[in-house]
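Page header: ASSEMBLY MODEL / two components / 406 residues total.
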Amino acid sequence: MKEETDKRKAAGTAADPREKYMRAALKQAEKALALGEVPIGCVIVSGDRIVGRGYNRRNTSKTTLAHAELIAIDKASRKLGDWRLEGCTMYVTLEPCQMCSGSLVQSRIDRVVIGTMNPKAGCAGSILNILEMPEWNHQVEVETGVLQAECQEILQQFFRQLRQRLKKEKALRRAEAAGAADTPAPAAATPAAAEGAAPGTKE
Amino acid sequence: MKEETDKRKAAGTAADPREKYMRAALKQAEKALALGEVPIGCVIVSGDRIVGRGYNRRNTSKTTLAHAELIAIDKASRKLGDWRLEGCTMYVTLEPCQMCSGSLVQSRIDRVVIGTMNPKAGCAGSILNILEMPEWNHQVEVETGVLQAECQEILQQFFRQLRQRLKKEKALRRAEAAGAADTPAPAAATPAAAEGAAPGTKE
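Prediction written out in full:
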């Protein structure tokens, strides 16, 4: 099994098209990570063509509308010239929130393929399942667990780095408060070191 | 009571600030009506200042992101320079859908004041109450029924005109199918008459 996966990777192709598109979504998540944003990415596929890409840039763009899914839906709609995304599938690294799950129903997309679930706030089965409610005039088919390990890992990497950065910043503040100006601050507590641990850089 | 309301209207002011802002939301809904869109409008207020306005233009802009609420949230965020709309209130003519209710939670807005409810698809109490779920890290206070009659009337006006237009178009197609080319078509079934009944024009 592992050997087969390695071969696929080496060949640069994926026999399973869901994995191919989820890798494209992960590429988007990496762009968010590089900006220091929570790394979530997605793509929208029509036929065998990617018609919309998006990554989370909420802090950078300073608007709630900069969630990965909304950006991709907007791009796909502009590309296809219709707000209705019938026949399309979204591949997203993390289970969508209330807003993004709602946007998938509103855009009448056919299907959403999810990398990893969000047990604390997800709305495609975790807290609610907004996507498949019979009360709406449209339901979105949900599939989960495609490249789950990779989708989870990029998030864990981000939060690990964030915790380290906050810990270093706290240590720095403590050292300053203790009047440590006369003695050299520990290496890890310098602003430069804290900066180095910012998301998007190596630990 | 009625006399008092008439006096207020005559003076061009509203003693109740909620009515003043809901009238501003109705003004936005009128802009949607003029475009032939389902007339839904909203404003976002911070302190005593309107910081975001929006009206539904989903068909015109060809994107799901053109719901009134999302447009207003985006504008308010850009104006305030933050995706967090803490301390703000949204006034919206119709109960928000799944996506827009989710966007209110995500934007951490304090409160939403609703004109009229949407029993078929509303998510601020009708089908779901996404806004006040204890599972989220933020809840939005909900108030309903402000200028309910006016908010309902503008929607009823739109759907009345839409039904009339569709009826006329159907009659026109029937007349054409019956080979009515040799006999004059009934006045109501001419393309010009059907055009005249388009939303945004007087009946």
